[in-house]
Amino acid sequence: MGSLLSACGIDVKKKKVEEERHLRANDREFNLSFKYANNAIKTSKYNVFTFLPLNLFEQFQRLANAYFVFLLILQLIPQISSLSWFTTVVPLLLVLSITLAKDLSDDITRHKNDNHVNNRKVDVLIDGELKSEKWMNVQVGDIIKLENNQFVTADLLLLSSSEPLNLVYIETAELDGETNLKVKQALTITGDLGNDIQKLAAFNGEMRCDPPNNRLDKFTGTLTVGGELFSVDNERILLRGCTLRNTEWCFGLVVFGGPDTKLMQNSGKSIFKRTSIDHLMNALVIFIFGFLAFMCTILSIGNAIWEYQEGNSFIVFLPRADGANASLSAFLTFWSYVIILNTVVPISLYVSVEILRLGNSYFIDWDRKMYYVKSDTPAQARTTTLNEELGQIKYIFSDKTGTLTQNIMTFNMCSINGKSYGEVVDFAGQRVEVTEKTEKVDFSWNSLADPKFYFHDHKLVEAVKLGSPEVRAFFRLLALCHTVMPEEKTEGELYYQAQSPDEGALVTAARNFGFVFRSRTPETISVVEMGVPTTYELLAVLDFNNVRKRMSVIVRNPEGKLTLYCKGADTIIFERLHPSSTKLMEVTTEHLNEYAGEGLRTLALAYKDLDEDKFEEWRERHHEASTSMDDREEKLDAIYEEIEKDLLLLGASAVEDKLQDGVPQTIEQLAKADIKIWVLTGDKQETAENIGYSCNMLREEMKEIFIVAANTADAVREELVNARKKMSPESGDEPPIEKSRFPGKKSQVVEDEKVDGEYGLVINGHSLAFALQKDMELELLRTACMCQAVICCRVTPLQKAQVVELVKKHKKAVTLAIGDGANDVSMIKTAHIGVGISGQEGMQAVLSSDFSFAQFRYLQRLLLVHGRWSYLRMCKFLRYFFYKNFTFTFVHFWYGFFCGFSAQTVYDEWFITLYNLVYTALPVIGLSLFDQDVNDRWSFQYPQLYAPGQLNQYFSKMAFARILLHSCYSSLILFFVPWAAMCDTVRDDGKDIADYQSFALLAQTCLLIAVSVQLGLETYYWTAVNHFFLWGSLSVYFAVTFTMYSNGMYLIFTSFVPFIGTARNSLNQPNVWLTIFLTTILCSLPVVAKRFLFIQLKPTINDKVRHKVRQAEAVPAPLPRKFPRRRISTRRSGYAFSHARGYGDLVTSGRFLRIPVKTRPALFSHSETPVADSIPQTYRTIFEETQSP
Asked: What is the pTM of this model?
């Protein structure tokens, strides 16, 4: 049995938890004994055998589908069935088939994607020779060869590479969205294997490491070679999903394969997401079942009483079957009425909901205003079941790198010797907005300049050309003080490999202004200064770390002069300045405040001339500290402190981490819609804060921005409590828990607390780890939810998901997560809605998302336009659908009191069959697909229109109760007015029309026209399609009625068409049409009166905006293009040019140098890098609503 289930794709064995990974290189037999997963991946859900049973099993878990199967069984019992079986079978099969087809299509796509990946080829070392194998056949312990630009096949231990020092360059965009190359390095013991196949085949190292996990930034293991033990950390590991760049070849040992790789571990399980309206509908369906049972019970009791009191009078000509009595009759009547009244939950509801959601998904796919031309990327609704929830978002959780920013740095401004450069001013000295048309500085005088670098302030170039010593010293520092590695494949074509884009931007700026960093050796740095080749002796690199927040180099120029150049966070540098720089520091501080006000990332630059004797003495002590076995880091820091003092200030640089177009405006619009935005990023605090200000999340106008960066649980709690008390002094120690609706069950929902003013919160990953503990998570939630903006720094992928889960669990709010890398996948899957940014940053997030597009700015259109419209349409659809069906059903209920509770239908059977499938199906679908209260421009003009969705105002249990009462009123009118009008009525010629068939025709005609008028009242936006569907459906009704009630149809289908001549007999009478008109007016009157009174006395935001629309002569003019005002800020970004320790040790090791092979072909096309495609910074305001509709 187990093998059969396994063949069907169902895992029946409970996998033993792996505690440690143990493997041996080139020994498949040994490694297979542990039954590790191979390298095949499987994201599909079904196979050929399991598709039909599993899919049907899932579908019948939906309560309504099971209910309709139960109805079908009842209809097959002749004693109780008063309707034909096909009235249930056809719609049920239609619903099941549509869902089957959709799920089959989705799973076929997943199978194709899996096969595409699994069938990629890679060279594997098998039996002493390299063989080309499919990825899915690669096993743990295999040694594989990767070549330049290849994807990394599995999680590998790097053994050796073509580059000196066994370095490899990898791009991790698929994992974390960052496009700057990262460096990995093999162990020396394995690096000596090189590309010698015999040595590699003989390699039998044993490895022990952590079991499979989702920590992208951590790896702990040991490698045993020849009895010697070596430590292995994350710097030796290449992860699946990375791409090899600028490296001819490398060899790696497979550690984790397929589902065990960190990429797949971060993918998490697919979660079946359902909207809040789905959950509400489930609760309402259960209530409706109870209400149906209640009505059937009343009618069956009525039947028992009627049979007991009146039934005996009919026994003479309608004899009862043997054993039949009033009780049995009542029991059978109960089930008959279950069949007749089943239209309170019509199966067409679910068909229509699927069509509606699919249609609104296509509107997102087809929206040209969400199409990104540069990468040819349209928006895509990858899930068709969550559209209306886009109109209810309260919290957005966003990644930073690649989502808010482009991860492309540009050198924008600088302050040198008290003078600021970078602004463009006119003849009157007024600042001019920089656009793509603004004249650029001409760098043609510099043959080594980077053609992709743009600058607009001509004064800086003039200062360089005129030989200003301060300006030249400034760019000399940028050209010398860094750990960038140059690459010159052909003469004059320089490419820089930097640990972060910041460093690359600064070195590139120096290059263009005439100070070109050309090459380096362990002892020298070669630059070209204004066309003159100059070589500096590199004496020491005082490397960066997160505590120092600065880096320095000590160099000797060709004249023998010793100089220390230092750059770092301004607060750190200013503390170490010589008193003579005080005045310059004050002026530079003003410039730094201006740069920070524009969201730029700033660094202070300083230098110091050194005395030869003192330097030699310092150098000896530096050597002792660097070779110390105990407390090496602390000793080096102390030595660095000694020499990095009494510095002379040169100025400051300002680099822009380029935001994606329209990010600040999008965040501002979303904030106006009362959507709270939290940024969850792996970047350090200063960088994240800086971006927070750049994109208008954090603002100077905020009352306070709280920083939580404590290192103990108690300290974190204290900081959170203090912040909460400042925001809301009256808030209690216990969180305000919402009262549970079920007695005895404790609610987990924490209510919102009132705050006066706007606040921000910044918390680092270390503090967040404490704050997410069980006993502190509610304190974190309370404090964070009081803030308008929250930034979490240095967070792991798991922490991102935990933060989202915390808000989901304890807040009655809909969440959305947006990201672009594999480190965002868990967050995207956890949130109610997951959005993936597709583009240069990789597709891992997109594959796990519900919606995807290329730019963050499209999020405002997705939510404020498509989301709001989808929610509005869905709510209107449900309100109208329940109204028309309850009204239809209640008329049956009232008729029961006039037909002896005999389960006779009040309408013609054909009308019952076609009412939901034909007569009312298309008009409500037209309403649900095309209706809009205001157009997209007005939606952007008034983001406050989004608020009703967050508060769930358009469809709720209270709204459902109102629909029930409205339907009850309408059904009373639709039954009793025609009944009173037809009672004892005759035609003009004296013939009787007070018969059952004439009454049935009048009642159903009144019903159809009344619900059609109600639909017209609900429709805000009329299109040709709406008119066609509405008038077409009424026309079809009358055409079918006259056809089915004709003599010809009666002669052909005598038993199916009993209503012969009824239509022409009744509908030519004026009093019949007067009755129809009267019932329609009476049904519509309360709706019109209520709407009029509410608009006059208590208008909603929607009513107010629609009134403005009617008053406006045309659509609103595009918002004026605001020129960004200069903002002064005392907050400055910290040292931001590295996210990790720099390359200092590597630079001075002497083993990084490439072999200078001039004829070697280019390994990587730099024209395809995002940096190569960067365009000049333009200061322009992006407004989606300015685009033509």
From this structure: 0.77
